[in-house]
Amino acid sequence: MSPPTRSRSAFLLRLVPTALAVFYLPLADQPGNPVDGWAWAFALGAAALFAFGRRIPLTMVLCLSGLLVITDRIGTHADVVVILATFAALIDLALHRDRRWIAAGVLAAAVGLFVNFVDVPLAPLQPPFFFVVTGVIASLLGAPILLGLHLKAARLATAEAQQRAVELEQRRESEKAMVRATERTAIARELHDIVVHHVASIVLRVGVARHLDPDADPETAAALDDVHATGTAALADLRRLVAVLRDPATLDEEAHAPLLLDPADLPDLLHQAVARSRNAGLSLDASVDPGVAGLDAVRGLALLRVVQEGLTNVLKHAGPHASATVTVAATADGAVRIDIFDDGTAAKRHPPTGGHGLLGLRERIHLLGGEFEAGPGLGLAGWRIQAVLPVTAMAAGPA
């Protein structure tokens, strides 16, 4: 039950004495013993006191005990309603106050009930009758007090259980964060000690090779320069990625640079990826819609990674004489379609299933709510990658 619903139900329960007064007093109106205005005044007054006196339970009990005495002295029909309100107020008192205030409220209520029940002077009371009346009153007062204490204990137990659940959830989240931090640190260490080391070695060796043969033919020199530039850029990206893995707080700083891009630069970056593949010897026909410059940074990065990984797979698996086409088109509704197809025969015989590149692309596109397919082309010739990046809420705007 939600808090507003619980509060509404609790207030409706506090209207029970009011309902009793409304239904009981007309029934108690007899020809020889009519219900007068005092009865209505005291009954509705006691009901209103209970309905709105939740924050002052001891004062409420004291006032209702006084009304018990007054109604007995006047002799009205309101005593039933006042007694019920008193019992309910004792439940409130036991639920919200400590033992001292409970004892004071019980004593006051006992006096009111005793005066209300006993219509003879106190002096002539015989001990057996006195003890019987006292026992009955104690039993009547004990029931609401015990009920209130039980409700208080149940409420405390529920609060403690909820607190333990919150603490347990916080502890689990803390443990998960520690595990993720440990995993990130291990991955960063392996990247730095193995991958970064090898890429740095490649860059260094390519640079040395370029300077050892200054008279190399232009094609060889251009290929070496391209490998050196690509390796240098990859090395910088790896170092930034290692920094992000070791300290995610740097995600909003310079280390975030390789993880996001300026959408305005996206067409140029796509053309650079195509140019690198052509320089590597791939016959490639590319069509890039300039409208992709309007993508948000997250979708733009996903688009760039699909094209890069798709072209890498063509170079690795399509064979030396393959040709490929890359089509990147923005649809009228703001979605983006990517189609990368090659006619290589090696892809048919040995589809690229050994690595994690396509799996990573599939996960990246699905996280954005898009579609991704990779497999043999039509007629089982070549290999085709198709992806659709959907319109994001930011791109779509208000409906």
Automatic annotation (TrEMBL):
Keywords: ATP-binding, Coiled coil, Kinase, Membrane, Nucleotide-binding, Phosphoprotein, Transferase, Transmembrane, Transmembrane helix, Two-component regulatory system
A Gene Ontology term for the protein's cellular component: membrane
Coiled coil ranges: 151-185
Residue stretches spanning the membrane: 37-53, 74-95, 101-122, 129-151
Key word Transmembrane present: yes
EC primary class: transferase
One Pfam match: HisKA_3
GO molecular function, one term: protein dimerization activity
PANTHER family per the UniProt record, alphabetical: NITRATE/NITRITE SENSOR PROTEIN NARX-RELATED, NITRATE_NITRITE SENSOR PROTEIN NARQ
Protein's UniProt name: histidine kinase
